[in-house]
C-alpha cells in the first residue's frame, strides 16, 4: 500500500510506502509527474512523438502507433550519432519566437524488427522471436522495453539531451516490404489540419486513442487553446516531411541526414 499526499500550493509531494519495492516503483514515476507538471503549468502540451538532436538541430518524429517513430529514432541514434531526447511522448512549449521540446522520461520501447537490423542489439530480441524470418520479426506485435540504464547501448556517439529546439518534423510511414527511403514535403496547411484533427497525434482517427496524457498528480492546466497555439507554431516554424521507407535503418538515417542539410 502507498499513500501519496500532493500539494500544488506548497509544491510538495509526500509519499509513504509499505515496502522498499513500492518506494522503488513510485520514485521515478512521481519525479516524472512533478517535472511534467511544471512544464504543463508553463504552457507545454503533449504530442505523440519521438525526438532527437543532431548537431544542435532538433528533429521531432510524429505519427500514430505503428508508423515507425521508434524505428526512425533508433536509426538516427545508431547511424548519425544523434542525441536522444524522448521515445514516445513529447512536451512541446511554444515561445515568442521558438518552440522548445522536452522529454517525457520513460523506457524506450523498440520493435523487434529494428533490433534485428542492428547486430549489436540482437541479444535484446526475446527468445520466442529469435528463430523467425526477417519479415516475421518486423511484424512481431510486441515491442521490447529497454530501461534507462541500457540507453548507452542504443547511442553511437550521441548523448542524452534534456530538450531540443525543433528544426525539422518528420512523419514516418515505414513498410518492411519497401526498399530505400523517399521524403516528400508536407504543406503547412496539411500539417496544421492533421495536427489539429489528431491533437498532435495523441488521437488516432481510425483507432481511437493513440497515446495517453499520462498526468494525474496535479491538474493539467489549459485547454484546446494551448493545443491550437502549438499546432500553429509547428505548422509555421518547422518544415515537415513524410518519409516512406523500408526496414533498412541506414537508408532511413541517410534520408534524415539529407533533409537536415537542406533546411535552414
What radius of gyration results from the CA coordinates? 19 Å
- The topology string of helices and strands comes to EEHEEHEEEEHHEHEEHEEHEH
Instruction: Note the overall shape.
Output: globular
Number of helical segments with 4 or more residues: 8
Ranges where pLDDT stays below 50 over 5 or more residues in a row are: none
Strand content: 25-35%
Question: Tally of extended strands?
Answer: 14
- How would you name the oligomeric state of the polypeptide chains in this document? single chain
The number of distinct structural domains comes to 1
Quote the average pLDDT. 90
Q: Roughly how much helix do the residues carry, as a percent range?
A: 25-40%
CATH architecture: 3-Layer(aba) Sandwich
CATH topology: Rossmann fold
What is the SS-derived class? alpha+beta
- What's the end-to-end separation, in Å? 53 Å
CATH class descriptor name: Alpha Beta
Main sheet makeup: 8 strands, mixed
Explain this structure.
The chain is of the alpha+beta class and 264 residues long. The protein has a single domain (46-262), classed as Rossmann fold (3-Layer(aba) Sandwich), CATH 3.40.50. The chain has helices spanning 20-41, 69-79, 112-116, 134-138, 151-154, 188-198, 224-237, 249-262; strands at 2-7, 12-17, 45-54, 57-62, 83-86, 89-93, 100-103, 108-110, 144-146, 166-174, 181-186, 203-204, 208-209, 240-245. The strands form four sheets. Strands 3, 4, 5, 6, 7, 10, 11 and 14 form an eight-stranded mixed sheet that branches. A two-stranded antiparallel ribbon has the order 1-2. Helix 2 (69-79) crosses helix 8 and helix 6 (188-198) runs antiparallel to helix 7. It is globular. The N and C termini lie far apart (53 Å). InterPro entries: P-loop_NTPase.
